[in-house]
Amino acid sequence: MLPPRLSRRSRRKAGQAAVSARQERAKVKEMVTKGEIFFFDLFKDERKSVLRMKLIDLLQSVPGIGKTRAEIILDRTGISNSRRIGGVGHRQIELLRQEFLLIKNSRKSGELLVVSGPSGVGKSTITNKLRSDDRFWISISATTREIRSGEQNGVDYHFVSDEKFDQMIAKMIF
């Protein structure tokens, strides 16, 4: 199938729109680099130029992330290198949040909230409520206890054996 024939005027207009979109994407990436825009806020941005931006290009604009680290992040999260911002799903965003745990890229320093208490007091109820609020990032703890009804490995906890837990300590994973 042949591409549609465009008049000079239409071709010029399309070219101008493409240039404008590239300039807007460049400005957005510059603002991320300077810390003026938070990386995760762009997933809610409705501008077509932002939605069409490749995730790998946006990742590379984050201070401390270059081409290699961006590729590693996408590989570890199972996100395609060709994925565009508008095509990133909620689960993929959560995986990216986990990858950003040690990366400093926020408009201001965050605050740490520790939810602690004995078994059965409602820690999971509180953290599940906070999980639905984009202002909070919930870490997932590792535990050697048995999985309970309704819990999911990798969501509520990382359920591991005593042996695996000791290996994780030895490898300084914590």
Write structural notes for this entry.
With 174 residues, the protein is mostly helical. It folds into 2 domains: 95 residues, Orthogonal Bundle (Helicase, Ruva Protein, domain 3); 48 residues, no CATH class. It is 44% helix and 2% strand. The protein has 7 helices and 2 strands. The protein has a two-stranded parallel ribbon. Helix 3 crosses helix 4. The longest helix is centred in the N-terminal third of the chain and has 26 residues. The protein is elongated. The chain starts with 7 loop residues before the first helix and ends with a helix.
Number of helices: 7
End-to-end distance: 56 Å
**Can you count the beta strands?**
2
List the secondary-structure elements in sequence, H or E.
HHHHHHEEH
Percentage of residues in strands: under 5%
Spatial order of strands in the largest sheet? 1-2
What's the CATH topology name of the largest domain?
Helicase, Ruva Protein, domain 3
**What is the domain total for the residues?**
2
Spans with pLDDT under 50 lasting ≥5 residues?
A: none
Rg from alpha-carbon coordinates: 21 Å
Gist?
The protein is an all-alpha fold. Helix content is 44%, strand content 2%. It has 2 domains: 95 residues, Helicase, Ruva Protein, domain 3, CATH 1.10.8; 48 residues, no CATH class.
